[in-house]
Amino acid sequence: MVMYNNILVPLDQSPLAEEGIESAVTLAKAFDSTIHLLYVFEIIPLLKRDKEAECRILKSEGEAYLSELKERISQFGVSVNTVVVPGDPGLVICDYAEKENIDIILLSARGRGEIERWALGSVSDKVMRHSPKPVLLVKSASRDLLRGRTILVVDDEPDVLEAIEEILDMCIIDKAGNHDTAVARLKNNRYDLAILDIMGVDGFDLLKRTTSKGIPTVMLTAHAVTEESLTRSARLGAVSFLPKEKMYDLESFLIDVIRSSGKPVWKKLFDRLSPYFRMNFGWSEKEEAKLRKEVEAIGKE
Fold first, then answer.
1. DSSP character at residue 177
2. Staple partner for 112: which of 14, 105, 231, 285, CB 3.0–4.6 Å?
3. Rounded CA gap, 245 and 222, in Å?
4. Structure letter (DSSP) for residue 103
5. What is the mean pLDDT of the chain?
6. Shortest CA distance to 127 belongs to which of 248, 272, 8?
7. Domain 6-140 is in which class?
8. Domain 6-140 and domain 143-300 have a common topology
9. Exposed / middle / buried, residue 149 (Cβ in 10 Å: 0-12, 13-18, 19+)
10. Cα distance between residue 196 and residue 129, in whole Å
């Protein structure tokens, strides 16, 4: 008889990745197993002192995140072990599974990932190819929250429009490559959500138009990833703000927006992307905390 004494659930702070937890709890209760929650963070600072500081911050954030999950899971009478380490997620997962005598690894079929979606990207690919232990892919139920949603996507780069359409393949995507086309679409159609570029399409004007129609709007930009653009987006009513480097996070963030009934999800944005913002904006912990407080306060107005 197959026994699952140790079950590994890798996490990336996304609700999609967390969907593997329910299956893990079911197995753990059946086999009296221990669930291992593993959070791997990546850091790419230029200077050694920055690396050490960033490592401390990310480790602390990861421990707080897993501590909350452990408390929830423990209520089911299941033993839980939490681990937070830096490194390449795919390699660390495989290494941990071997060293800790893991019997099975549960991966969500879609997760956030630092580079691409776990299901089709670098993390799951490495785990599936190199894992010394069996891997179970858990189908995401959260995707059904987006299924059939009509979304207006505005960007002057055709490749970006195509990529978003592929990422959100469960949605009905209406694409606009410029400001005037987007205005016409907004005049004639109804949308559940909007995703707007800033540069090249006069995104802030479009944001005023979408919010006036009550359409929850996420700003997605490459060239306007600045503190000023972030705060301006919040003040104009955007519910979130995503750098194009994190475009594969869209599904997870939009699910957050749906779950919040279209209200701003700035806290979740900072919880997940604060390392990215710190690295790109050069914020100190105190500066980040100040801006986070300001933006979250705007979202509650």
1. S
2. 14
3. 7
4. S
5. 86
6. 8
7. alpha beta
8. yes
9. middle
10. 37
> Parallel, antiparallel, or unpaired for β 217-221 and 193-196?
parallel
Neighbours of 115 (CB within 10 A): 14
**Residue 139, pLDDT score:** 73
CB atoms within 10 A of CB 113: 24
Token reading at 87: 């490194």
Cβ(132)–Cβ(94) below 8 Å = yes
Instruction: Name the residue type at position 209.
Output: R
Residue 5 CB coordination number (10 Å) = 13
Fold category of 143-300 in CATH = Rossmann fold (3.40.50)
Residues 6+ apart with CB under 8 A from 64: none
Q: Does the pLDDT value for residue 290 go beyond 90?
A: no
Strand-strand pairing, 135-138 and 104-108: parallel
Whether the pLDDT of residue 7 is over 90: the answer is yes
Q: Which of 59-73, 86-100, 174-188 has the highest mean pLDDT?
A: 174-188
DSSP-assigned letters across all residues of 29-93:
HHHT-EEEEEEEE----SSHHHHHHHHHHHHHHHHHHHHHHHHHHHTTT-EEEEEEEES-HHHHH
Region 77-102: what's the mean pLDDT? Answer: 94
Tokens of 97: 């599974």
Q: Where are the domains of the chain?
A: 6-140, 143-300
Query: What tens digit of pLDDT does each residue of 220-266 get?
Result: 988 777 888 999 999 999 999 999 888 877 888 898 899 899 888 88
